[in-house]
Task: structure prediction
Amino acid sequence: MPTASRPIRVLFIHGLESRANGSKARMLREQGFDVVAEEMHMGLFQVRRRNSAIRQLPRLGESRVVGALALGLLVAAPSAPAIALGSALAVGWGVARRRALFGKALGRSFDACLAIQRQAIQAARPDIVVGSSWGGAIAARLVIEGAWRGPTILLAPAVAKVERRMGRGDGSRVAELLRDRSAHVRIVVFHDPSDDTVPFEDSVLLARGGAIELRSVSAGGHRLLGLLERGELADAIRALCPPATAVAGS
Result:
């Protein structure tokens, strides 16, 4: 647990298109916290980031089958008509299956990011986990599966949105599981009603029943930088991690 000689250790889980040492992680360090932030190499269409959804598409079993069929056609009959037919096959398949394929690819990205943060918890033994947007969805899953059992702050968590985009349901089951875990884990959600990226209503539903604390704030929309600039996030972290009760690790 944190003492007078050791600052509170925060595991910060960054957002979808963000990086580990983004503005939130830097500001928390400036405010006196020991911040651990692991790079998840994530993004939707960031080809250079190894866990991006676009990088996952060719790794899907379905993608490999269609690619092999198209390649086999070209090898068997290397001609202009064969090239046209193979290309049409691949494009038509991609258009018809684009939503399902992207959902599967995003699911692979999510699982890869989750594995990174499981390892971070084991290595860093944080006092608190703070997850932002996509990172909030990752943090929620860590709590649900029991990889993390300490205080948790979710910033505009994309829990339901990520579940919907992965094609794994509407998020209601994940919300229910998280509410069940909140009987043993203190969870606070910050969300700005003006957020135009992750619906505020998703957090209202997530916190339904009162076990999860939802704090509606005016803090600059989805990024919630006002929380850091005003010191509200820092105050919340300190309130959840007093020296007598904070946990060091899971």
Summary: The first helix runs from residue 23 to 30. The CA atoms of residues 179 and 210 lie 9 Å apart.
